[in-house]
Amino acid sequence: MALEHAILVSLAERSASGYDLARRFDASIGHFWKASHQQIYKVLGRMESDGWVESQVVPQDGRPDKKVYVITDGGRAELVLFTSKATPPEHLRSEFAVKLRALPFGDAAAIVDDVRVRRRSHEQQLAYYADSAARFYPHPDDIPDHALGGWLVLRGGMLAEQAGIAWCDEILQRLAGDEDDER
Amino acid sequence: MALEHAILVSLAERSASGYDLARRFDASIGHFWKASHQQIYKVLGRMESDGWVESQVVPQDGRPDKKVYVITDGGRAELVLFTSKATPPEHLRSEFAVKLRALPFGDAAAIVDDVRVRRRSHEQQLAYYADSAARFYPHPDDIPDHALGGWLVLRGGMLAEQAGIAWCDEILQRLAGDEDDER
DNA sequence: CGTTGCACTGCAACGAGTTGCATAGTACGG
DNA sequence: CCGTACTATGCAACTCGTTGCAGTGCAACG
Questions:
Q1: Mean of the pLDDT values across residues A23-33?
Q2: Which of A159, B46, B65, B179 is the most buried (most CB within 10 A)?
Q3: How far is Cα B145 from Cα A109, in angstroms, rounded to an integer?
Q4: B2 touches chain A (CB under 8 A)
Q5: pLDDT above 70 covers what percent of chain A?
Q6: What is the pLDDT of residue A84?
Q7: Per-residue model confidence (pLDDT) at position B183
Q8: In chain B, where do the E strands start and end?
Q9: How many angstroms separate the first and last alpha carbons of chain B?
Q10: Residue A157 pLDDT > 80
Q11: Distance from CA of A67 to the nearest CA of B (A)
Q12: Which pLDDT value is given to residue B130?
Protein backbone atom coordinates (compact mmCIF):
# COMPACT_ATOMS: atom_id res chain seq x y z
CA MET A 1 0.00 0.00 0.00
CA ALA A 2 3.02 2.24 0.32
CA LEU A 3 4.16 1.94 -3.27
CA GLU A 4 1.66 4.62 -4.22
CA HIS A 5 3.17 6.90 -1.63
CA ALA A 6 6.72 6.13 -2.61
CA ILE A 7 5.81 7.10 -6.16
CA LEU A 8 4.05 10.25 -4.96
CA VAL A 9 7.16 11.31 -3.04
CA SER A 10 9.30 10.62 -6.05
CA LEU A 11 7.01 12.63 -8.32
CA ALA A 12 6.76 15.43 -5.76
CA GLU A 13 10.53 15.72 -5.95
CA ARG A 14 10.48 15.61 -9.74
CA SER A 15 8.02 14.67 -12.48
CA ALA A 16 8.93 11.54 -14.36
CA SER A 17 7.81 8.76 -16.68
CA GLY A 18 7.15 5.22 -15.51
CA TYR A 19 10.48 4.21 -16.91
CA ASP A 20 12.28 6.97 -15.03
CA LEU A 21 10.55 5.95 -11.83
CA ALA A 22 11.56 2.36 -12.33
CA ARG A 23 15.17 3.43 -12.61
CA ARG A 24 14.95 5.66 -9.56
CA PHE A 25 13.56 2.69 -7.71
CA ASP A 26 16.58 0.71 -8.85
CA ALA A 27 18.88 3.36 -7.45
CA SER A 28 18.16 5.43 -4.35
CA ILE A 29 14.64 4.93 -3.01
CA GLY A 30 14.57 1.39 -4.22
CA HIS A 31 16.97 0.22 -1.57
CA PHE A 32 14.10 0.67 0.85
CA TRP A 33 11.21 -0.14 -1.40
CA LYS A 34 11.68 -2.32 -4.47
CA ALA A 35 9.28 -2.22 -7.37
CA SER A 36 9.35 -3.66 -10.86
CA HIS A 37 8.44 -1.57 -13.87
CA GLN A 38 5.33 -3.65 -14.52
CA GLN A 39 4.04 -2.86 -11.10
CA ILE A 40 4.90 0.80 -11.40
CA TYR A 41 2.99 1.14 -14.67
CA LYS A 42 0.02 -0.62 -13.14
CA VAL A 43 0.00 1.56 -10.04
CA LEU A 44 0.51 4.74 -12.06
CA GLY A 45 -2.63 3.89 -14.01
CA ARG A 46 -4.60 3.49 -10.83
CA MET A 47 -3.17 6.67 -9.37
CA GLU A 48 -4.15 8.59 -12.46
CA SER A 49 -7.74 7.40 -12.26
CA ASP A 50 -7.70 8.35 -8.57
CA GLY A 51 -6.65 11.85 -9.54
CA TRP A 52 -3.33 11.78 -7.71
CA VAL A 53 -1.26 12.26 -10.84
CA GLU A 54 -1.72 13.50 -14.39
CA SER A 55 0.12 12.34 -17.46
CA GLN A 56 1.17 13.86 -20.73
CA VAL A 57 2.71 12.08 -23.66
CA VAL A 58 6.02 13.64 -24.61
CA PRO A 59 7.41 12.80 -28.06
CA GLN A 60 11.16 12.38 -28.19
CA ASP A 61 13.43 12.00 -31.15
CA GLY A 62 15.63 9.01 -31.47
CA ARG A 63 13.58 7.42 -28.71
CA PRO A 64 10.08 6.13 -28.09
CA ASP A 65 7.51 8.58 -26.74
CA LYS A 66 7.35 8.83 -23.01
CA LYS A 67 4.42 9.47 -20.72
CA VAL A 68 5.45 11.98 -18.10
CA TYR A 69 3.52 11.94 -14.84
CA VAL A 70 3.03 15.03 -12.69
CA ILE A 71 1.68 15.04 -9.16
CA THR A 72 -1.66 16.86 -8.72
CA ASP A 73 -3.03 18.81 -5.77
CA GLY A 74 -5.00 15.69 -4.90
CA GLY A 75 -1.76 13.76 -4.85
CA ARG A 76 -0.12 16.30 -2.56
CA ALA A 77 -3.12 16.19 -0.25
CA GLU A 78 -2.84 12.42 -0.15
CA LEU A 79 0.82 12.71 0.83
CA VAL A 80 -0.08 14.97 3.74
CA LEU A 81 -2.77 12.53 4.79
CA PHE A 82 -0.31 9.67 4.53
CA THR A 83 2.25 11.35 6.76
CA SER A 84 -0.34 12.37 9.32
CA LYS A 85 -1.58 8.84 9.89
CA ALA A 86 0.41 6.53 12.16
CA THR A 87 2.45 3.92 10.33
CA PRO A 88 1.14 0.45 11.13
CA PRO A 89 3.84 -1.53 12.98
CA GLU A 90 6.10 -3.32 10.54
CA HIS A 91 7.06 -6.83 11.55
CA LEU A 92 10.27 -8.40 10.35
CA ARG A 93 9.83 -11.22 7.93
CA SER A 94 13.02 -13.10 7.57
CA GLU A 95 13.45 -16.28 5.61
CA PHE A 96 16.94 -16.32 7.03
CA ALA A 97 15.54 -16.58 10.56
CA VAL A 98 13.47 -19.57 9.46
CA LYS A 99 16.63 -21.13 8.13
CA LEU A 100 18.43 -20.61 11.42
CA ARG A 101 15.64 -22.33 13.28
CA ALA A 102 15.98 -25.18 10.83
CA LEU A 103 19.59 -25.70 11.97
CA PRO A 104 19.08 -29.02 13.78
CA PHE A 105 17.10 -30.44 10.85
CA GLY A 106 19.19 -29.26 7.94
CA ASP A 107 22.62 -28.84 6.46
CA ALA A 108 24.62 -26.88 9.03
CA ALA A 109 27.67 -26.41 6.79
CA ALA A 110 25.57 -24.91 4.02
CA ILE A 111 23.94 -22.57 6.49
CA VAL A 112 27.32 -21.35 7.69
CA ASP A 113 28.31 -20.71 4.08
CA ASP A 114 25.10 -18.80 3.61
CA VAL A 115 25.83 -16.66 6.66
CA ARG A 116 29.21 -15.75 5.20
CA VAL A 117 27.62 -14.77 1.88
CA ARG A 118 25.04 -12.78 3.74
CA ARG A 119 27.65 -10.98 5.80
CA ARG A 120 29.47 -9.96 2.66
CA SER A 121 26.35 -8.61 1.04
CA HIS A 122 25.57 -6.59 4.16
CA GLU A 123 29.08 -5.18 3.99
CA GLN A 124 28.71 -4.28 0.35
CA GLN A 125 25.41 -2.59 0.97
CA LEU A 126 26.87 -0.67 3.86
CA ALA A 127 29.78 0.44 1.72
CA TYR A 128 27.34 1.57 -0.93
CA TYR A 129 25.38 3.61 1.60
CA ALA A 130 28.53 5.12 3.06
CA ASP A 131 29.58 6.08 -0.43
CA SER A 132 26.21 7.68 -1.19
CA ALA A 133 26.37 9.53 2.09
CA ALA A 134 29.81 10.90 1.38
CA ARG A 135 28.79 11.93 -2.11
CA PHE A 136 25.39 13.48 -1.51
CA TYR A 137 25.78 14.68 2.07
CA PRO A 138 29.39 15.75 2.47
CA HIS A 139 28.47 17.93 5.48
CA PRO A 140 26.15 15.80 7.64
CA ASP A 141 25.84 18.48 10.30
CA ASP A 142 24.54 21.01 7.86
CA ILE A 143 21.82 19.42 5.75
CA PRO A 144 19.01 21.59 4.37
CA ASP A 145 15.46 20.65 5.33
CA HIS A 146 14.46 19.39 1.91
CA ALA A 147 17.26 16.83 1.95
CA LEU A 148 16.93 15.70 5.55
CA GLY A 149 14.55 12.84 4.79
CA GLY A 150 16.96 11.32 2.33
CA TRP A 151 19.80 11.51 4.82
CA LEU A 152 17.77 9.95 7.62
CA VAL A 153 16.69 7.11 5.38
CA LEU A 154 20.30 6.48 4.42
CA ARG A 155 21.24 6.43 8.10
CA GLY A 156 18.50 3.90 8.74
CA GLY A 157 19.92 1.72 5.99
CA MET A 158 23.39 1.93 7.46
CA LEU A 159 22.22 1.06 10.96
CA ALA A 160 20.26 -1.89 9.61
CA GLU A 161 23.27 -3.19 7.68
CA GLN A 162 25.52 -2.80 10.69
CA ALA A 163 23.06 -4.75 12.78
CA GLY A 164 22.95 -7.41 10.08
CA ILE A 165 26.73 -7.70 10.11
CA ALA A 166 26.80 -7.92 13.90
CA TRP A 167 24.21 -10.69 13.73
CA CYS A 168 26.21 -12.65 11.18
CA ASP A 169 29.29 -12.30 13.34
CA GLU A 170 27.50 -13.67 16.37
CA ILE A 171 26.21 -16.57 14.33
CA LEU A 172 29.63 -17.35 12.88
CA GLN A 173 31.21 -17.20 16.29
CA ARG A 174 28.74 -19.79 17.52
CA LEU A 175 28.70 -22.04 14.49
CA ALA A 176 32.14 -21.76 12.98
CA GLY A 177 34.21 -21.07 16.07
CA ASP A 178 35.17 -17.81 14.39
CA GLU A 179 38.36 -19.29 12.81
CA ASP A 180 38.30 -17.02 9.83
CA ASP A 181 37.61 -13.39 10.51
CA GLU A 182 38.11 -12.69 6.83
CA ARG A 183 38.80 -9.16 5.54
CA MET B 1 7.60 -19.17 -0.07
CA ALA B 2 9.16 -19.57 3.35
CA LEU B 3 5.94 -20.11 5.24
CA GLU B 4 5.99 -23.75 4.21
CA HIS B 5 9.44 -24.08 5.69
CA ALA B 6 8.56 -22.23 8.87
CA ILE B 7 5.71 -24.69 9.33
CA LEU B 8 7.99 -27.62 8.57
CA VAL B 9 10.45 -26.48 11.22
CA SER B 10 7.66 -26.04 13.69
CA LEU B 11 6.28 -29.51 12.95
CA ALA B 12 9.76 -31.03 13.06
CA GLU B 13 10.07 -29.70 16.59
CA ARG B 14 6.62 -30.97 17.51
CA SER B 15 3.53 -32.23 15.70
CA ALA B 16 0.56 -29.91 15.90
CA SER B 17 -2.81 -28.93 14.51
CA GLY B 18 -3.36 -25.88 12.35
CA TYR B 19 -4.76 -24.09 15.34
CA ASP B 20 -1.70 -24.92 17.46
CA LEU B 21 0.58 -23.69 14.69
CA ALA B 22 -1.33 -20.44 14.43
CA ARG B 23 -0.79 -19.88 18.13
CA ARG B 24 2.90 -20.72 17.93
CA PHE B 25 3.13 -18.21 15.13
CA ASP B 26 1.53 -15.68 17.43
CA ALA B 27 4.16 -16.38 20.05
CA SER B 28 7.77 -17.31 19.35
CA ILE B 29 8.43 -17.96 15.66
CA GLY B 30 5.80 -15.49 14.63
CA HIS B 31 7.91 -12.54 15.68
CA PHE B 32 10.00 -13.29 12.62
CA TRP B 33 7.37 -14.66 10.34
CA LYS B 34 3.72 -13.73 10.80
CA ALA B 35 0.93 -15.90 9.44
CA SER B 36 -2.81 -15.90 9.92
CA HIS B 37 -4.70 -19.09 10.63
CA GLN B 38 -6.48 -18.94 7.27
CA GLN B 39 -3.17 -18.95 5.50
CA ILE B 40 -1.79 -21.73 7.66
CA TYR B 41 -4.75 -23.98 6.92
CA LYS B 42 -4.41 -23.29 3.22
CA VAL B 43 -0.69 -24.01 3.16
CA LEU B 44 -1.09 -27.14 5.32
CA GLY B 45 -3.51 -28.48 2.72
CA ARG B 46 -1.01 -27.90 -0.04
CA MET B 47 1.82 -29.38 1.99
CA GLU B 48 -0.22 -32.49 2.63
CA SER B 49 -0.89 -33.01 -1.05
CA ASP B 50 2.83 -32.46 -1.67
CA GLY B 51 3.57 -35.26 0.79
CA TRP B 52 5.49 -33.09 3.24
CA VAL B 53 3.08 -33.70 6.10
CA GLU B 54 0.39 -36.18 7.06
CA SER B 55 -2.69 -35.51 9.12
CA GLN B 56 -4.87 -37.46 11.47
CA VAL B 57 -8.16 -36.36 12.96
CA VAL B 58 -8.06 -36.54 16.75
CA PRO B 59 -11.40 -36.42 18.56
CA GLN B 60 -11.43 -34.50 21.81
CA ASP B 61 -14.08 -34.22 24.46
CA GLY B 62 -15.45 -30.87 25.42
CA ARG B 63 -13.80 -29.49 22.29
CA PRO B 64 -14.05 -29.74 18.52
CA ASP B 65 -12.02 -32.44 16.79
CA LYS B 66 -8.55 -31.41 15.78
CA LYS B 67 -6.48 -32.41 12.79
CA VAL B 68 -2.94 -33.12 13.93
CA TYR B 69 -0.21 -32.77 11.33
CA VAL B 70 3.01 -34.78 11.42
CA ILE B 71 6.07 -34.15 9.27
CA THR B 72 6.94 -36.94 6.82
CA ASP B 73 10.31 -38.09 5.50
CA GLY B 74 9.55 -36.07 2.40
CA GLY B 75 9.05 -33.02 4.58
CA ARG B 76 12.36 -33.61 6.34
CA ALA B 77 14.11 -34.00 3.01
CA GLU B 78 12.59 -30.73 1.89
CA LEU B 79 13.93 -29.03 5.00
CA VAL B 80 17.44 -30.26 4.22
CA LEU B 81 17.07 -29.04 0.66
CA PHE B 82 15.83 -25.68 1.89
CA THR B 83 18.79 -25.17 4.20
CA SER B 84 21.29 -26.21 1.56
CA LYS B 85 20.14 -23.63 -0.96
CA ALA B 86 21.34 -20.04 -0.59
CA THR B 87 18.77 -17.66 0.79
CA PRO B 88 17.86 -15.06 -1.81
CA PRO B 89 18.92 -11.60 -0.58
CA GLU B 90 16.18 -9.98 1.47
CA HIS B 91 15.65 -6.32 0.83
CA LEU B 92 14.21 -4.07 3.45
CA ARG B 93 10.78 -2.77 2.69
CA SER B 94 9.94 0.05 4.98
CA GLU B 95 6.85 2.18 4.77
CA PHE B 96 8.45 4.23 7.48
CA ALA B 97 11.36 5.09 5.20
CA VAL B 98 8.89 6.28 2.57
CA LYS B 99 7.32 8.47 5.21
CA LEU B 100 10.66 9.98 6.13
CA ARG B 101 11.31 10.86 2.52
CA ALA B 102 7.91 12.50 2.46
CA LEU B 103 9.04 14.89 5.21
CA PRO B 104 9.18 18.06 3.09
CA PHE B 105 5.74 17.34 1.60
CA GLY B 106 3.86 16.24 4.68
CA ASP B 107 3.05 16.84 8.30
CA ALA B 108 6.38 17.00 10.10
CA ALA B 109 4.89 17.15 13.59
CA ALA B 110 2.84 14.02 12.97
CA ILE B 111 5.91 12.25 11.68
CA VAL B 112 7.84 13.11 14.82
CA ASP B 113 4.99 11.74 16.91
CA ASP B 114 5.09 8.61 14.83
CA VAL B 115 8.81 8.23 15.43
CA ARG B 116 8.22 8.41 19.17
CA VAL B 117 5.52 5.74 18.97
CA ARG B 118 7.80 3.63 16.88
CA ARG B 119 10.66 4.00 19.31
CA ARG B 120 8.47 2.84 22.13
CA SER B 121 7.31 -0.21 20.25
CA HIS B 122 10.91 -1.12 19.43
CA GLU B 123 11.70 -0.84 23.11
CA GLN B 124 8.78 -3.02 24.08
CA GLN B 125 9.75 -5.62 21.56
CA LEU B 126 13.32 -5.58 22.77
CA ALA B 127 12.17 -5.99 26.36
CA TYR B 128 10.03 -8.92 25.28
CA TYR B 129 13.00 -10.57 23.55
CA ALA B 130 15.27 -9.93 26.52
CA ASP B 131 12.67 -11.51 28.75
CA SER B 132 12.33 -14.55 26.50
CA ALA B 133 16.11 -14.86 26.41
CA ALA B 134 16.39 -14.77 30.18
CA ARG B 135 13.61 -17.30 30.55
CA PHE B 136 14.50 -19.83 27.87
CA TYR B 137 18.26 -19.40 27.70
CA PRO B 138 19.43 -18.60 31.22
CA HIS B 139 22.97 -19.72 30.37
CA PRO B 140 23.77 -18.21 26.96
CA ASP B 141 27.29 -19.61 26.92
CA ASP B 142 26.07 -23.13 27.31
CA ILE B 143 23.24 -23.74 24.88
CA PRO B 144 22.68 -27.25 23.48
CA ASP B 145 22.78 -27.65 19.71
CA HIS B 146 19.09 -28.26 19.28
CA ALA B 147 18.28 -24.91 20.88
CA LEU B 148 20.99 -22.84 19.22
CA GLY B 149 18.84 -21.77 16.28
CA GLY B 150 16.21 -20.33 18.55
CA TRP B 151 18.80 -18.38 20.49
CA LEU B 152 20.44 -16.98 17.38
CA VAL B 153 17.10 -15.89 16.00
CA LEU B 154 16.31 -14.15 19.28
CA ARG B 155 19.66 -12.39 19.12
CA GLY B 156 18.87 -11.24 15.61
CA GLY B 157 15.61 -9.80 16.83
CA MET B 158 17.35 -7.96 19.62
CA LEU B 159 19.99 -6.51 17.33
CA ALA B 160 17.31 -5.38 14.90
CA GLU B 161 15.31 -3.69 17.64
CA GLN B 162 18.39 -1.97 19.00
CA ALA B 163 19.20 -0.68 15.54
CA GLY B 164 15.60 0.53 15.23
CA ILE B 165 15.87 2.41 18.50
CA ALA B 166 19.17 3.97 17.47
CA TRP B 167 17.58 5.08 14.21
CA CYS B 168 14.63 6.67 15.99
CA ASP B 169 17.03 8.48 18.30
CA GLU B 170 18.98 9.91 15.40
CA ILE B 171 15.76 11.03 13.76
CA LEU B 172 14.45 12.65 16.92
CA GLN B 173 17.72 14.40 17.49
CA ARG B 174 17.47 15.92 14.03
CA LEU B 175 13.78 16.70 13.98
CA ALA B 176 12.88 17.43 17.56
CA GLY B 177 16.15 18.84 18.84
CA ASP B 178 16.14 15.98 21.31
CA GLU B 179 14.36 18.05 24.02
CA ASP B 180 12.67 15.09 25.57
CA ASP B 181 14.80 12.06 26.10
CA GLU B 182 11.87 10.39 27.81
CA ARG B 183 12.48 7.34 29.99
C1' DC C 1 24.03 -6.83 -42.01
C1' DG C 2 22.73 -9.36 -38.05
C1' DT C 3 22.80 -9.39 -33.06
C1' DT C 4 22.79 -7.32 -28.88
C1' DG C 5 21.36 -3.76 -25.85
C1' DC C 6 18.77 0.17 -24.40
C1' DA C 7 14.58 3.12 -24.02
C1' DC C 8 9.68 2.74 -23.50
C1' DT C 9 5.09 0.88 -22.63
C1' DG C 10 2.17 -2.52 -21.37
C1' DC C 11 -0.88 -7.26 -20.67
C1' DA C 12 -1.86 -11.87 -18.69
C1' DA C 13 -1.36 -15.35 -15.46
C1' DC C 14 -0.06 -16.69 -11.25
C1' DG C 15 1.23 -16.88 -6.23
C1' DA C 16 1.26 -14.90 -1.72
C1' DG C 17 -1.19 -12.71 1.82
C1' DT C 18 -5.26 -10.14 3.91
C1' DT C 19 -10.08 -9.49 5.19
C1' DG C 20 -14.40 -10.99 5.96
C1' DC C 21 -17.47 -14.52 6.74
C1' DA C 22 -19.43 -19.32 8.03
C1' DT C 23 -19.94 -23.01 11.24
C1' DA C 24 -20.16 -25.52 15.52
C1' DG C 25 -19.67 -27.09 20.20
C1' DT C 26 -18.38 -25.76 25.03
C1' DA C 27 -17.99 -22.80 28.96
C1' DC C 28 -18.88 -18.91 31.77
C1' DG C 29 -20.75 -14.56 33.56
C1' DG C 30 -24.77 -11.64 34.10
C1' DC D 1 -31.43 -17.92 28.94
C1' DC D 2 -28.55 -14.69 26.45
C1' DG D 3 -24.35 -12.80 24.97
C1' DT D 4 -19.53 -13.40 24.79
C1' DA D 5 -15.35 -15.85 24.38
C1' DC D 6 -12.51 -19.88 23.29
C1' DT D 7 -11.28 -24.03 20.50
C1' DA D 8 -11.30 -25.56 15.88
C1' DT D 9 -11.57 -25.60 10.69
C1' DG D 10 -12.26 -23.64 6.53
C1' DC D 11 -14.09 -20.89 2.00
C1' DA D 12 -14.45 -16.68 -1.00
C1' DA D 13 -13.05 -12.48 -2.63
C1' DC D 14 -9.73 -9.31 -2.93
C1' DT D 15 -5.10 -6.79 -3.17
C1' DC D 16 -0.23 -6.85 -3.78
C1' DG D 17 3.58 -8.39 -6.13
C1' DT D 18 6.22 -11.52 -9.36
C1' DT D 19 7.16 -13.80 -13.72
C1' DG D 20 6.83 -14.19 -18.35
C1' DC D 21 5.78 -12.31 -22.62
C1' DA D 22 5.09 -8.80 -26.36
C1' DG D 23 6.10 -4.96 -29.27
C1' DT D 24 8.64 -0.73 -31.30
C1' DG D 25 12.46 1.77 -32.65
C1' DC D 26 17.21 3.46 -32.39
C1' DA D 27 22.30 2.84 -31.68
C1' DA D 28 26.52 0.45 -31.35
C1' DC D 29 29.46 -3.77 -32.05
C1' DG D 30 31.46 -7.03 -34.75
A1: 84
A2: A159
A3: 14
A4: yes
A5: 97
A6: 94
A7: 43
A8: 16-17, 53-58, 66-71
A9: 40
A10: yes
A11: 24
A12: 95
Instruction: Identify, with chain letter, the residue nearest to nucleotide C17 (CA–C1').
Output: B39
Q: How far is the CA of B63 from the C1' of D4 (A)?
A: 17
CB-nearest partner of A149 from B2, B12, B100: B100
Q: A12 and chain B: CB distance < 8 Å anywhere?
A: yes
Residue type at B82 in one-letter notation: F
The per-residue pLDDT for range B63-74, each reduced to its tens digit, is: 788 999 999 999
Euclidean distance between CA atoms A121 and A182, whole angstroms: 14
Q: In chain C, which nucleotides are within 7 Å of a protein Cβ? A: 7-12, 15-21, 24-27
CA A62 to C1' D27 (Å) is 9
A-contacting residues in B 79-138 (Cβ below 8 Å): 79-80, 82-108, 110-111, 113-114, 117-118, 121
Kindly report, residue by residue over A40-93, the tens digit of the pLDDT. 999 999 999 999 999 999 888 777 889 999 999 999 999 999 999 998 888 888
Antiparallel, parallel or unpaired: β B53-58 and B66-71: antiparallel
Q: State which residues of chain B have pLDDT below 70.
A: 178-183
Q: pLDDT at position B61, please?
A: 74
Starting at the edge strand that comes first in sequence, how are the strands of the sheet with B66-71 ordered?
B16-17, B66-71, B53-58
Residue A40, φ and ψ in degrees, nearest 5: -60, -45
**If 0-12 CB within 10 Å is exposed, 13-18 middle and 19+ buried, where does residue B21 land?**
buried
How far apart are alpha carbons B89 and B75 in whole angstroms?
Answer: 24
